[in-house]
């Protein structure tokens, strides 16, 4: 069944997401991939990429503005969730109090995304790399901004329709802005792991545990002893698949 058109609360999920964003944007586009969604203009996937990042890169080259991204399967999202992202500097994304970056809903500037497009392609389209490669990345505490877990909740299966329990954890309860020459870009340019160790320390000190897990996965390519640490962090924050 197509998740976009699955009814939640009497209307298709995609309609709920569009309605929450409508007051903040000039136009709403969908990136349906091989599917068809009527009623909205579309953005085609960027060639050579797959998954959400294919639409993100394509939108960056089609528009020259501030862009909001969200999947079709967050039917409980509120206008406030989009509004708070737009107030933040640079690339902006929410973080759960347990240190999980909620990477599926975010704000970014088209020009910044174009700058990193080649690096994203080289990396195989990892969505979290958008934040890792941003020169200004603002990580918003969901708790501080009054965003409930329900508002950012993905509905992938029918059992997910049951509203989730509220947030757990207390390691990330304040906003963080990172303004830097992205260490990941330095690593990709030079191959030096020193850039990744610097990035890892920044994330661990801030409580951005899911981001730290992704850095550890990169480091584990040269040192397999780090792979269990990456898996442990992902399990800690509840990641079940790559982001």
Give, in order, the helices and strands: EEHHEHEEHHEEHHHH
Q: Say how many strands there are.
A: 7
* Strands side by side in the biggest sheet: 3-5-4-6-7
The tally of domains stands at 1
CATH topology: Spore Coat Polysaccharide Biosynthesis Protein SpsA, Chain A
Query: What's the end-to-end separation, in Å?
Result: 23 Å
Biggest sheet details:
5 strands, mixed
Total helical segments: 9
Residues in helix, %: 25-40%
Rg calculated over all Cα atoms: 17 Å
Form type: globular
**Roughly what fraction of the amino acids lie in strands?**
5-15%
CATH architecture: Alpha-Beta Complex
What is the residue-mean pLDDT, rounded to a whole number?
93
CATH superfamily: Spore Coat Polysaccharide Biosynthesis Protein SpsA, Chain A
- Text of the CATH class: Alpha Beta
Structural class: alpha+beta
Unreliable residue runs: none
Report on this structure.
The chain is an alpha+beta fold and 243 residues long. It has a single domain (3-180), classed as Spore Coat Polysaccharide Biosynthesis Protein SpsA, Chain A, CATH 3.90.550.10. The chain contains nine helices and seven strands. The chain has helices at residues 13-21, 52-62, 79-87, 110-122, 129-132, 183-190, 193-206, 209-220, 227-237, and strands at residues 7-8, 11-12, 66-69, 91-95, 101-109, 136-141, 176-179. The strands form two sheets. It has a five-stranded mixed beta sheet, sandwiched between helices. A two-stranded antiparallel sheet has the order 1-2. A hairpin with a 5-residue loop joins strand 4 (91-95) and strand 5. The longest helix is centred in the C-terminal third of the chain and has 14 residues, at 193-206. One of its GO terms (molecular function) is nucleotidyltransferase activity. It holds the Pfam family NTP_transf_3. Residues 2-125 form the MobA-like NTP transferase domain. InterPro entries: MobA-like_NTP_Trfase, Nucleotide-diphossugar_trans. This is Molybdopterin-guanine dinucleotide biosynthesis protein A.
